[in-house]
Amino acid sequence: MAAVSSMSKMYGLCFHAVRQTAGLKASRLLQRRGFRVTVVQLQQPFDSSLEKPQFPGASAEFVDQLEFIQPNVISGIPVYRVMDRQGNIINPSQDPQLSKETVLNFYQKMTLLNTMDRILYESQRQGRISFYMTNYGEEGTHIGSAAALDPNDLVFGQYREAGVLMYRGFPLDHFMAQCYANADDLGKGRQMPVHYGSKDLNFVTISSPLATQIPQAAGAAYAVKRENINRAVICYFGEGAASEGDAHAGFNFSATLECPLIFFCRNNGYAISTPTNEQYRGDGIAARGPGYGMLSIRVDGNDVFAVYNATKEARRRAVAENQPFLIEAMTYRIGHHSTSDDSSAYRSVDEVNYWDKQDHPISRLRHYMTARGWWSEDDERSWRKQSRKTVMEAFERAERRLKPNPELLFTDVYQEMTPSLNKQRESLWRHVQQYKEHYPLDLYEK
Amino acid sequence: YLSLDRRKIPGLILGGDAVSWLRKGIWCKTEKMKHSKLPAIFAFFMCEVLHFFNLIGSPKGPTQKMNLFQSITSALDNTLASDPTAVIFGEDVAFGGVFRCTVGLRDKYGKDRVFNTPLCEQGIVGFGIGVAVAGATAIAEIQFADYIFPAFDQIVNEAAKYRYRSGNLFDCGNLTIRAPWGCVGHGALYHSQSPEAFFAHCPGLKIVIPRGPIQAKGLLLSCIADKNPCIFFEPKILYRAAVEQVPEEPYTIPLSQAEILQEGSDVTLVSWGTQIHVLKEVASMAQEKLGVSCEVIDLQTILPWDIETVCKSVVKTGRLLISHEAPVTGGFAAEISSTVQEECFLNLEAPISRVCGYDTPFPHIFEPFYTPDKWKCFEAIKKMINY
C-alpha cells in the first residue's frame, strides 16, 4: 500500500541512520557512559566517482522517481499499553510485576492528588485562593513517570505535574502553602498558585511561560552528564507547548549535544480551548522525534504501567547512552484548563464523561488491584475518608496562616540586596507607616 | 584574584610599584585609526597605563600585550583552568569564534567544554540557564548583540526571575552571556546595535560593558564569578583596535562601580564602552578650546548602575552630559538623566544633555552622520557652559 511504503520510506530513512550509527553506539556502550564525543556520521572523503550523494548535510541514496513523502497521520505511531481499559494485563511479559505495596502507593498517590484537586478547586471558587489548575485524568502520567525515575533525577515541569511532586513526597502543607501564598510557602509568596518548586525533591520551580523549561532541561542534562553520577533529567510539557520555538530548540540541542534527558509530552487533547487538530497537522509530538534524531515512543498515558515501563527504559538508556528520549503520553484533560476556564464552551459534556467513566487511569489501576484481591470496597471507603481528612486538615492549617513579611517583596532579585532596592524598600516602609490604614498589614507576618 | 578596587586617577600620582612598572617598559600610546573601515572621526586612546598604576596593590605576575579579543580569551582560559564545571558554547565557538575570542580553548580544555550549538539563540540562552541551574558555570556566546532578541524571553522571563520566583530555591547565577556590541564602521542595522536599554528595564540581570582589554578581562571574570545572570557586551570595534598590557593571571574589577577616568570641575561626562574614548577626546578639546574642565566617568555596569558616583560628580560640576550610540529615546541616558535630576536638581546649572544615536535603525552608509561623535559632544558642552 502506498501509505505503508511511504511510511517505511519516511521511517526507513531514519532506520537507516540508526543502523549506520549502531556500530558506533555498540562500541561506545562498552565504554559505559564514556563520553560519546561528537562524531556524527563519520564523513567519508569526497569521492565523486561513486554514485552516492556526497553532501555533508545528509547521508542517503539517490532516487530518480519524483515522489513527496506522505506524512502518515492516519495510522501513525502506535500507542504502547500494558492494560486494557478494564485494567486487565494484555501481554503478561509487559506487566512490570510491581509489589502490592508499590501499586497501592501508586493508587493512593493518584487518589490523594485527585482529592486535593477537588478541595483546592472548590477553595478558589469560594475566593479563598486566587487560582487553581486541576490534574484530572492525567494522574497516570505523573505517577507512572515519577515512579520510574531516581529521586535525584532533576524534574522540569510545565504546570500540570503536581502528581510528580506528590509521588516524591511533597507534603500537603507545602502544596497548600504555595496555593495560599502564606508564610510557609517555600517560594516566599511570589507566584500564582500551582507554581510549585522543591530543591530537596529536585523539582525545579514552575514558571508560567510555556516551553521555556525545554531547552533548560537540555542544559541541565548536559551539566549532569559531565558530572557522571548516574543522574537523568526529565522535562514535562503539553502538546500545546510543543508548538513553541523553545521546544524545537530543546529537542535539537539535546540531540546534537547528546544529553541524558527524557522529554515527556502530556498530549491531553487541548491547549485551553485549542484542540489538537488546530495545534498540529502531523502525527502528534512523537513523530517529531525522529526528525531530530531522537528515539521516540507513544504510550497510553492513562495506563500507569505503560507510562512506568516506557519511562524506566528511557531513563536507563538515556543515562547509559547519553541521548535524549521522547515519550508522548496520550491522555485526556478531564478538568477545565484552570479555574479561569469553562470548557463547556468548546467541548461536549459527553466527551468529558467518556474519559471520566470509561478510560480513567485511577479506575483502570483499581481494577488491576481488585482483580488481585489487593483492594476492597472497604479499603476504598476508608481510604477516601482518610485522604479527605488529611487534605482538609492541611487546608485548614493553610487558611489560618499569615502571609509572608512584605520585606520579601524586595529580596532575591539578586543574590545580594542592592543600594537602589534598599532605598525603594525604605521608601515603601515610610509610605506604609504613614498610610497604614490603607494596607492589609494584619494579614502579613511582621 | 587581584581585585582592582579603586575609582580615581588623581592626575599623575605614581606609586613605587607603578614606577617599577614603567621601568619594565609599559608603553603608553595614542593611535589614530588608519583602518579605512573604522570611523575616521574616532581616535582611540590607549593611555590606560596611567590609571592602571593607581590600582590597589601591584598586578600579580607578568603581563602580555593583548587586544580586546585576546583579553577575553585570557579570561575564558583562566576560568576553564580554575573551574572544572565551566563550559563555553554558542555558534561557531569551537573553531575559535567569528571574533577569535575562543581560539585555542577547545584544544586545550576539550570538546565537552568548548562546543558549538545549533543556530538558535533562544536555545543557547535556555540551554545556558539549564547548565547554570544544574550548578555548572555557563558562558554563552551570542554571535552579535543584534541577534539576542530571540533569547529575550529566556533572559527576561526566566534567567532574571529564576531566583526571585523560586524563593531562592533555584537560580541561574552561574550564567554569563557574552555578545559583540556597538558600531563597527560598516555594520548597519544588524551588526551595530547596542541593546543594553532593553535589558536595563529588567530587574535581576546585570549588564556590563568594558572600554578596553584590561577592563574586559577583569569585568568578565567578575561577571563569571557573580552569582547573578550577567550580560557582558563586548565593543566589537575594539576587538583588534584596543591593545594594552594585560595581566595573564586572573583578576576582577568590581561590578556596579563606575570609574572616574579623569577628574574635572565644570562638566561631568558619562558613558560606557567605545564612547568613553570619544568622551576622553572631547574632554581634551573642551580643556584646550574652551578652558572647560571635564570629569569623565565610565559607568562600566549599566545595571545595577553606580548612582552614587555619578550624582556625587554632578553635585560637584553642576552639568551632566551622557552619550551612547543607541537611539536617544528610551536609551539608558534617559534613566541616568531622570535619576540625576531627582537627586541633584538644585545643583544643576544647565539641563542634562544626551548626545546619542538618532531614533532610527542603525544605518549603513550614513554611519558618520549617525554616530554621537566628538563634535556633537563638544557642541553640547558649549551649550551647557553658555546656558
UniProtKB/TrEMBL annotation, chain A:
CDD domains: TPP_E1_PDC_ADC_BCADC. GO terms for biological process: branched-chain amino acid catabolic process. InterPro entries: Alpha-ketoacid_DH_E1_comp (IPR050771), DH_E1 (IPR001017), THDP-binding (IPR029061). Keywords: Metal-binding, Mitochondrion, Oxidoreductase, Potassium, Thiamine pyrophosphate, Transit peptide. The keyword Transit peptide applies. It is found in: Mitochondrion matrix. GO terms for cellular component: mitochondrial matrix. Its cofactor is thiamine diphosphate. It catalyses: N(6)-[(R)-lipoyl]-L-lysyl-[protein] + 3-methyl-2-oxobutanoate + H(+) = N(6)-[(R)-S(8)-2-methylpropanoyldihydrolipoyl]-L-lysyl-[protein] + CO2. Residues 108-407 form the Dehydrogenase E1 component domain. Gene3D superfamilies: 3.40.50.970. Its EC number is 1.2.4.4. GO terms for molecular function: branched-chain 2-oxo acid dehydrogenase activity; metal ion binding. Its main location: mitochondrion. The keyword Endoplasmic reticulum does not apply. Belongs to the BCKDHA family. The branched-chain alpha-keto dehydrogenase complex catalyzes the overall conversion of alpha-keto acids to acyl-CoA and CO(2). It contains multiple copies of three enzymatic components: branched-chain alpha-keto acid decarboxylase (E1), lipoamide acyltransferase (E2) and lipoamide dehydrogenase (E3). Together with BCKDHB forms the heterotetrameric E1 subunit of the mitochondrial branched-chain alpha-ketoacid dehydrogenase (BCKD) complex. The BCKD complex catalyzes the multi-step oxidative decarboxylation of alpha-ketoacids derived from the branched-chain amino-acids valine, leucine and isoleucine producing CO2 and acyl-CoA which is subsequently utilized to produce energy. The E1 subunit catalyzes the first step with the decarboxylation of the alpha-ketoacid forming an enzyme-product intermediate. Heterotetramer of 2 alpha/BCKDHA and 2 beta chains/BCKDHB that forms the branched-chain alpha-keto acid decarboxylase (E1) component of the BCKD complex. The branched-chain alpha-ketoacid dehydrogenase is a large complex composed of three major building blocks E1, E2 and E3. It is organized around E2, a 24-meric cubic core composed of DBT, to which are associated 6 to 12 copies of E1, and approximately 6 copies of the dehydrogenase E3, a DLD dimer. Interacts with PPM1K. This is 2-oxoisovalerate dehydrogenase subunit alpha.
From TrEMBL, chain B:
This is 2-oxoisovalerate dehydrogenase subunit beta, mitochondrial. It catalyses: N(6)-[(R)-lipoyl]-L-lysyl-[protein] + 3-methyl-2-oxobutanoate + H(+) = N(6)-[(R)-S(8)-2-methylpropanoyldihydrolipoyl]-L-lysyl-[protein] + CO2. GO terms for biological process: branched-chain amino acid catabolic process; response to nutrient. Heterotetramer of 2 alpha/BCKDHA and 2 beta chains/BCKDHB that forms the branched-chain alpha-keto acid decarboxylase (E1) component of the BCKD complex. The branched-chain alpha-ketoacid dehydrogenase is a large complex composed of three major building blocks E1, E2 and E3. It is organized around E2, a 24-meric cubic core composed of DBT, to which are associated 6 to 12 copies of E1, and approximately 6 copies of the dehydrogenase E3, a DLD dimer. Gene3D superfamilies: 3.40.50.920, 3.40.50.970. Its EC number is 1.2.4.4. CDD domains: TPP_PYR_E1-PDHc-beta_like. Pfam families: Transket_pyr (PF02779), Transketolase_C (PF02780). It is found in: Mitochondrion matrix. Together with BCKDHA forms the heterotetrameric E1 subunit of the mitochondrial branched-chain alpha-ketoacid dehydrogenase (BCKD) complex. The BCKD complex catalyzes the multi-step oxidative decarboxylation of alpha-ketoacids derived from the branched-chain amino-acids valine, leucine and isoleucine producing CO2 and acyl-CoA which is subsequently utilized to produce energy. The E1 subunit catalyzes the first step with the decarboxylation of the alpha-ketoacid forming an enzyme-product intermediate. InterPro entries: THDP-binding, Transketo_C/PFOR_II, Transketolase-like_Pyr-bd, Transketolase_C. It comes from the Eukaryota. Its cofactor is thiamine diphosphate. It comes from Oreochromis niloticus (Nile tilapia). Keywords: Mitochondrion, Oxidoreductase, Transit peptide. GO terms for molecular function: branched-chain 2-oxo acid dehydrogenase activity. One of its GO terms (cellular component) is mitochondrial matrix. Residues 66-241 form the Transketolase-like pyrimidine-binding domain.
